[in-house]
Amino acid sequence: MDIEKVNSMDFGEFVDVFGNVIERCPLIAAAVWSKRPFSGLGDLEKHFFAFIDGLPLSGQEGVLRCHPELAGRQLPWGRLTAESQREQSAAGLQNLGAAERLRFTELTAQYRTRFGFPFVLAVRLSDPAAAPRELARRLRCPPAQELRTALGEVKKICHLRLADLLGEQP
Ligand SMILES: NC(=O)NC1=NC(=O)NC1=O
């Protein structure tokens, strides 16, 4: 899809297409539509990122809370969004060994207890085997720093999903 097609979309079409580039946050696409016309992928994602950056802390935490747990209970039951299902399956998280999955589950529970939102990682850009180590590392970060890190991962996921939709190299 080229940027001219994006700029020609009415509100409903735009939200249908871009409503899940930020996981389960169609409101962000609904707001970004007003910023058209876009000059390209970079301009489009700049507006998605700006919306997130402009949210109050409660809103930024809310965006993170809209993300499914990594390799969580939802994965085998297919209750993830199509994008998350694709990303998490491709990352091979469901292939974690029993011991790894148990450690990962324990760490994600500790993470959510400490920060109040799920551990978010752009799995397409990470080595899934390193995910438990990355989770253990981030678990020790100060909350304000971890919020910024987690939102950075949301932006990476957004970039990848936008690149897919526009048929561009991520
Ligand atoms: N909690 C998460 O990190 N979720 C996800 N990361 C991805 O790359 N896709 C997801 O669904």
From TrEMBL:
The record's section on PANTHER family has: 2-OXO-4-HYDROXY-4-CARBOXY-5-UREIDOIMIDAZOLINE DECARBOXYLASE-RELATED (PTHR43466)
Keyword Ubl conjugation on entry: no
Q: In which pathway does it act?
A: Purine metabolism; urate degradation; (S)-allantoin from urate: step 3/3
Query: Which terms under GO biological process does the entry name?
Result: adenosine catabolic process; allantoin metabolic process; amide catabolic process; AMP catabolic process; dAMP catabolic process; deoxyadenosine catabolic process; deoxyguanosine catabolic process; deoxyinosine catabolic process
Question: What does the record give as the function of this protein?
Answer: Catalyzes the stereoselective decarboxylation of 2-oxo-4-hydroxy-4-carboxy-5-ureidoimidazoline (OHCU) to (S)-allantoin.
Which Pfam family is one of this chain's hits?
Answer: OHCU_decarbox
Q: Where in the cell is it found?
A: Peroxisome
Q: Does the keyword Metal-binding apply?
A: no
Species whose genome carries this gene: Bos mutus grunniens (Wild yak)
Catalytic reaction annotation: 5-hydroxy-2-oxo-4-ureido-2,5-dihydro-1H-imidazole-5-carboxylate + H(+) = (S)-allantoin + CO2
Entry keywords, A to Z? Decarboxylase, Lyase, Peroxisome, Purine metabolism
Task: Classify the source by domain of life.
Answer: Eukaryota
> Oxo-4-hydroxy-4-carboxy-5-ureidoimidazoline decarboxylase domain spans which residues?
7-163
Q: A Gene Ontology MF term for this entry?
A: 2-oxo-4-hydroxy-4-carboxy-5-ureidoimidazoline decarboxylase activity
Q: Which InterPro entries match?
A: OHCU_decarboxylase (IPR018020), OHCU_decarboxylase-1 (IPR017580), OHCU_decarboxylase_sf (IPR036778)
**If you read the UniProt record, what top EC class would you report for this enzyme, in one word?**
lyase
Protein name as catalogued: 2-oxo-4-hydroxy-4-carboxy-5-ureidoimidazoline decarboxylase
Q: Might you give the EC number(s) for this enzyme? A: 4.1.1.97
Family assignment?
A: Belongs to the OHCU decarboxylase family.
Q: Which cellular component terms (GO) are annotated to the entry?
A: peroxisome
